[in-house]
Amino acid sequence: MKTEILAMILAGGKGSRLGKLTQNIAKPAVPFGGRYRIIDFTLSNCVNSNIYNVGVITQYEPLVLNSHLSNGDSWGLDGLNAGLTVLQPFSANDGSKWFEGTAHAIFQNMDFIDRVSPEYVLVLSGDHIYTMDYEKMLEAHKENNASLTVSVIEVPMEEASRFGIMNTDEHNRVIEFEEKPEEPKNNLASMGIYIFNWAYLREVLLTSHQKDGEMLDFGKHVIPSYINSGERVYAYNFEGYWKDVGTVESLWQANMEFILPDNELNMRDPNWKISTRHRVSPPQYLSSSAFVSESLISNGCYIAGEVNHSIISTDAQVRDDAKVVDSIIMPGARIGKGASIYRAIVGENAVVGDLAVIEGDEEIAVVGNGEVIGVCSNED
Q1: pLDDT at residue 338, as a whole number
Q2: CATH code for residues 5-259
Q3: Is 180 assigned a ligand-binding role in the annotation?
Q4: pLDDT, tens digit (0-9, with 9 covering 90-100), for 17-55
Q5: 175-178 — which CB contacts under 8 Å span 24+ positions?
Q6: Segment (H or E) for 167
Q7: What was the pLDDT predicted at 92?
Q8: Annotated site (Could play a key role in the communication between the regulatory and the substrate sites), which positions (predicted)?
Q9: In Å, how far are 81, 243, 251, 336 from 365, measured between CA atoms?
Q10: Distance (Å, rounded) from C-alpha 307 to C-alpha 20?
């Protein structure tokens, strides 16, 4: 049976702006919301959009990400006519190994795509927090008889220069693309979500490789080429919650928004579930000295201190007399007795010792994955 659409998730980003949080882990595998990892949102969007053939392109520090993805069973991608395939860099006949851009990553995996033989290829980023029905975008792509559809979202005009901006006509056809313009003409920012007609994209990438190999990036090279050659390129207007969590500040902010019971992601919607690979952990335990307000406490947690407006992730500990405020404590981290954590992100399996103080007054404080600050006394 011919596959109508194949999703290709670009998940190899280093995420260098997240600093200590991505020193030994790919950005899409960074924990989020107490029990999830960032890539869970893109994968869940695929399944909720009835897209069951998914390739995940990895590159930087893939160990944790690969373990999390496994065979895709956590998202229902291991059944009949479904599949999740992890695609890693390899040495090709021309000696190339690392992906040099978004389009180059797709080109390097052309053999895999050809085996699936889709009519359309949906290219996604694995490091954004959002919920989106890709079926609606595909419907618009077909209605416009488009060769390429780019999902866009309105951003504040003062921030538009940070994004790739799509200038469109009255029918939403893209007539000009500007990559991070100093003086943007509008605020329609590309979300890095594309639907391509595979046959034509394949021809473009193959021709470029045989000629000059310049088609390395979708934003810088492929989209302008499509527009200049008269291809039908359309913008798809997305209205909803979307967050690029590429900085410490934006990751912290998205988590803080996630705490709200009526957050825009609408996590309690039974018709749009966000799935993940769960740790096998015991139930959370709150001691008689614990005080918790406006917070998310995950399975396996031990709470004996005070937690206010924070997220305590799976298997984390907050010991006696410790205080955690406006912070994210990632899986397996330990906060020692009497420690004080304010406006901070404490990485996976980190240890903040007894009486230690971590405060993010002017900017969010970060304790790296596995980092040890001070000493924790013997546990009760």
Answers
A1: 96
A2: 3.90.550.10
A3: yes
A4: 898 999 889 999 999 999 999 999 999 999 999 999 999
A5: 175/227, 176/227, 177/219, 177/223, 177/224, 177/227
A6: strand 164-168
A7: 60
A8: 59, 98
A9: 46, 20, 12, 17
A10: 24
Task: Identify the DSSP state of 305.
Answer: S
| H or E element, residue 242 | strand 242-244
C-alpha 78 chain-centroid distance: 21
Q: Cβ neighbours of residue 188 under 8 Å, at least 6 residues apart? A: 152, 153, 154, 165, 166, 167, 168, 235, 237
Token output for 98: 């690392």
Q: How many CB atoms lie within 10 A of CB 185?
A: 12
Question: Whose structure tokens read 């893209």?
Answer: 174
Phi, psi (degrees; rounded to nearest 5) at 190: -70, 135
Instruction: Report whether 288 belongs to an annotated binding site.
Output: no
- Report the run of H or E that residue 365 belongs to, with start and end: strand 365-367
Contact of 319 with 303, CB cutoff 8 Å: no
Q: Report the distance separating Cα 44 and Cα 67, nearest Å.
A: 17
What are 368-375's contacts with CB under 8 Å, separation 24+?
368/19, 368/20, 368/21, 368/23, 369/20, 369/21, 369/23, 369/24, 369/25, 369/330, 370/24, 371/20, 371/347, 374/336, 374/339, 375/336
46 CB contacts (<8 Å, ≥6 apart)? 7, 9, 52, 54, 75, 124, 134
Q: Is 190 annotated as a binding residue?
A: yes
**Residue 164 annotated as lining a ligand binding site:** yes
Q: CATH 2.160.10.10 in the chain, residues?
A: 285-373
Task: Yes or no: say if 295 and 311 are a contact pair by the CB < 8 Å rule.
Answer: yes
**How many other C-beta atoms are found inside a 10 Å radius of the C-beta of residue 201?**
25
Pick the CATH number of 285-373 from 3.40.190.10, 2.160.10.10, 3.40.309.10, 3.30.365.10: 2.160.10.10
Instruction: With CA atoms as reference, report the closest residue to 301 among 322, 320, 281.
Output: 281
Place of tokens 């207007």: 237
Structure tokens at 187: 């605020």
How many whole angstroms separate alpha carbon 249 and alpha carbon 334?
A: 22
Please check the confidence at residue 100 and state whether its pLDDT lies above 80.
no
- 219-225-231 Cα angle (round to 5): 110
Domain with CATH 3.90.550.10 in the chain: 5-259
Task: Report the greatest alpha carbon distance in the chain.
Answer: 70
